[in-house]
Amino acid sequence: MGVRVGSLVSRIVGAAVLAFVLLVASTALAIWWTARQDSRPSSDAIVVLGSAQYNGVPSSIFEARLEHARKLFEAGVAPVIVTVGGKADGDEFTEAEAGRDYLAETGVPAEALLAVPEGVDTLESIRAVAAEFTEHGWASAVLVTDPWHAMRAERMADDAGLDAASSPTRQGPAVQTRTTQFKYILRETAAYLLYRATGESVAGAPGIG
């Protein structure tokens, strides 16, 4: 009897481990697939998810996102670019302000820019953007972020009531090498599964929280 019980437990544990491995693998594959897509339907606004800034100067990751958003704007995807993101303790500028100022300096009209200086992670930022969309009567958005971050950002936006598509960047540190890409996919897989399980975000490196 003991042998049978032990065998049953082993099978259950084995099945649970296999199910977990398949879940992780399928999520990683979905993140990779979403990263390769580029959806840019006509929308109410282009939303640039924030990343690090240094005394008002966007980091290389953030700059890549902003440049991509500017190209989408010039292509007529949306009439407004929304920059979003708060600031760390001791910072003088928010990510949203740094992004807005960068775009203004590159020729985007001031009336086509909206800074939402809130959010220390993706979830907070998305919720702040959703509130602004409600206030302006907007519904649809094209999210600009790193490729590996796109699926989680889309999911959070959908959960916040936005009609969201993503147009990931193709330049910048997040896509430079296969090793970097693999690292980001692993981190995003963990972050996505955590969000689906708990409804919460996770703080981390730029583009991960």
UniProtKB/TrEMBL annotation:
Q: Which Pfam families match?
A: DUF218 (PF02698)
Keywords in alphabetical order: Membrane, Transmembrane, Transmembrane helix
* Keyword Flavoprotein attributed: no
Q: Where are the transmembrane segments?
A: 12-33
* Domain DUF218 intervals: 44-190
Q: What is this protein called?
A: YdcF family protein
